[in-house]
Amino acid sequence: RKDPQMFATYDELRLLSVWRWRGTEPGDVHHEAIRMYSLTSLDFPSGSTVLQMCFLPSAILPTHVFDSDGTPLVLLTQEPGSTDLVLRVVFVFAVNSYAQHYTARARIERQSERREAEVSVFAMSHSDRLLVLGGRGLLQFWKVWKSVDGTVRINLVFDAIQAGPWPREPAMVSCLGIGIAEEKDIHEDWITIGSSDGCLYGFNFVRGTGKEIELDSRENACGKFSANTHTPGVPIQCIIGNWSAPSESIDLTQAAYLRIPVERKSFVSVGEDGKFLWWRMHERCGWARVREISMWAPSPASCRSLACISSRLAPDLMVVADLASQTVGVPQHDGRGETSYVGSNSFAFVIALGRKARSEGAFR
Predict the structure, then answer these.
(1) What CA–CA distances, in Å, run from 352 to 24, 25, 112, 342, 349?
(2) How would you write the pLDDT of the chain (364 residues) with one tens digit per residue?
(3) Which residues, including other chains, have CB under 8 Å from residue 87's CB and lie 6 or more apart?
(4) pTM for the full model?
(5) Do residues 112 and 120 lie in contact, with contact meaning Cβ atoms separated by under 8 Å?
(6) Cis ω on the peptide bond leading into residue 165 (within 30° of 0)?
């Protein structure tokens, strides 16, 4: 997580590869856009499936691993013949370094009777203190931490399905962690979950006694969003944060661009039917729906695969990729309450836009 341009892959040969994105150069087709950072062979049981993985904060690294420029990841695996899932923490090192890796394990008993695991949510919280797992019959919050003696450990903080009452059949399909406390207070995490049946749920985690993280026990600190108007039965495919407006004097280098923070106390939820809801937290009434638009007439029949992201440089701008029409565009909202969708006719628009931005020196 220290390098937002890193990503990882895992293949059938049980090789975990970590890559670094280096970008492209106009007119140079031979420029190496990505470079391998590490290649590690993992001794998982033969036939194991890696369902999800993500990077962990470097704060959990033991001293000898940190000094060797190790990178921590957590992987969610399923062993052959088992319905249980296994969390594994792995350290990988740069290519041409020693190939040692360390694994901390935790076993998860799934509540779904289906043999094939469905895990759509696997992400770290806003503060990097919690790992969120969500899927069909699964919604758990884990803490990955380093003990005083330097040992990396995994502990379950809260199991929403076990705590009940909780719907077991709908799957948890989207997630976003944001900060809602004052900026100086990093010990509070708000996590929003979207389900396959169109519901929104929220959980607030705070620092409890003994500095341990725990679910907030205050009234209305977690539960279902009552003001949710997403179409029932339609999955909430995306939950995205709003970026804080950049300062007028910001130096738009790539490093400065990546440091623009996510805005606190607000987010956008997006249904598969093209309905967008803007949310903001108020001190007195909690989460309130402040805006709603639809790209199409919302209905289960109009569902399609969408991917969305808001712009760091223009916080009011949102880019939507529609897999069905293979377009990338921007929803536009006029003052009369009408919404239009201005999109290109091809995904090639993204490539052209990236090349144009780079050639014009958007990143110096």
Answers:
(1) 12, 13, 44, 16, 5
(2) 456 788 999 998 888 999 988 887 778 878 888 888 888 888 888 888 899 999 998 888 877 777 777 888 999 998 888 888 889 888 888 865 444 555 677 777 665 556 677 899 999 998 888 999 999 888 999 998 888 887 888 899 999 888 876 666 788 999 999 887 765 555 788 999 999 999 999 999 988 766 788 998 888 788 899 999 999 999 999 998 876 555 554 555 555 555 556 677 889 999 988 888 989 988 777 889 988 888 776 555 666 778 887 776 666 677 888 777 777 777 766 555 555 555 555 544 444 444 444 444 443 3
(3) 74, 75, 76, 105, 106, 107, 108, 131, 142, 154
(4) 0.82
(5) no
(6) yes
The helix or strand, by DSSP H or E, that contains position 161, with its residue range, turns out to be helix 160-163
Q: Tell me the C-alpha distance between 295 and 270, whole Å.
A: 10
Q: What are phi and psi of 128, to 5 degrees?
A: 70, 15
- Taking the C-alpha atoms of residue 124 and residue 302, their distance in angstroms, rounded to an integer, is 31
Give the angle subtended at the CA of 349 by the CAs of 345 and 354, to the nearest 5°: 170
- Pairing between β-strand 286-294 and β-strand 200-207 as defined by DSSP bridges: unpaired
Question: Can you tell me the distance from the alpha carbon of 38 to that of 48, in angstroms, rounded to the nearest whole number?
Answer: 21
Report yes or no: 266 and 281 within 8 Å, Cβ to Cβ. yes
- Contacts of residue 255, defined as CB under 8 A and 6 or more positions apart, other chains included, come to none
Residue appearing with tokens 């709003």: 242
Q: Could you tell me which residues come within 8 angstroms of residue 313 by beta carbon, excluding any fewer than 6 positions away?
A: 246, 252, 257, 260
How distant, in Å, are the alpha carbons of 3, 50, 111, 135, 174 from that of 142? Answer: 23, 18, 17, 15, 17
Looking at the chain, the number of H-run helices and the number of E-run strands are 4, 24
Residues 72, 57: Cα–Cα separation, whole Å = 7
One-letter amino acid of 72: P
> Six-digit token pair at 231?
């179409």
Three-state secondary structure call for residue 209: helix
